[in-house]
Amino acid sequence: MAQNSESRMTRRPERGTALIEFTLIMPLLLLLTVAAVDFGRAFFVKNILEQAAREGVRVRAVSSSADSALVTARVNQVAGGAAVAITSVVVAGPDASRQVSVTVTADFNWIFPGVFNLFGAGFTNPMPLKGQAWMRNEGSS
User: Fold this and answer.
1) What does residue 91 show for φ and ψ, rounded to 5 degrees?
2) DSSP string, 48-114
3) What proportions of the chain, in percent to the nearest 5, are helix, strand and coil?
4) Of residues 12 and 131, which shows the higher confidence score?
5) Is 70 exceeded by the pLDDT of residue 9?
6) What average pLDDT does this structure show over 88-104?
7) C-alpha angle 140-74-87 in degrees, rounded to nearest 5
8) Domain parsing of the chain, residue ranges
9) What angle do CA 83, 86, 89 make, to 5 degrees?
């Protein structure tokens, strides 16, 4: 019995340290989780825009410049599958080297822009994200 009460006495000063450590670490873990979620969403939208631009420039490369409505339709079709709202589609070219390009822009809304602004990031809502692709023109013009 004496040994049992002695071991209790040695543990008493450490009682509650786990709660204090958890309280100190939890805000950092929440910050990292929020940052990972927000950057993951931004990366996803950027990849969708790049894919939509690639698909659009391919349509433009095999058609004539009069078919820019087809390019816009294809870009919206690709982005619509991922529920990304396109704000602008710019079709350019062909230039002297017969390159055509498509630039796709969409507005991205951060869930917690203030978290990043604490560290000087300067993120705003909405933030424009762009995807761009180039391809050699194979069509008539």
Assistant:
1) -105, 125
2) HHHHHHHHHHHHHHTS-GGGHHHHHHHHHHHHHTTTPPEEEEEEE---TT-EEEEEEEEEE--S-HH
3) 55, 20, 25
4) 131
5) no
6) 88
7) 115
8) 14-136
9) 145
- Cα separation of 58 and 91, whole Å? 11
Amino acid at 117: N
What residues have CB less than 8 Å from 91, skipping those under 6 apart? 56, 60, 65, 68, 71, 72, 100, 101, 102
d(CA 65, CA 5): 88
- Show the tokens assigned to 28: 């950092």
> Taking phi first (over 0 means left), then psi (-120 to 50 degrees means alpha), and beta for anything else, what does residue 21 get?
alpha
* Cis status, amide bond into 13, omega within 30 of 0: no
Is 90 exceeded by the pLDDT of residue 111? no
For tokens 């498509």, name the residue.
Answer: 102
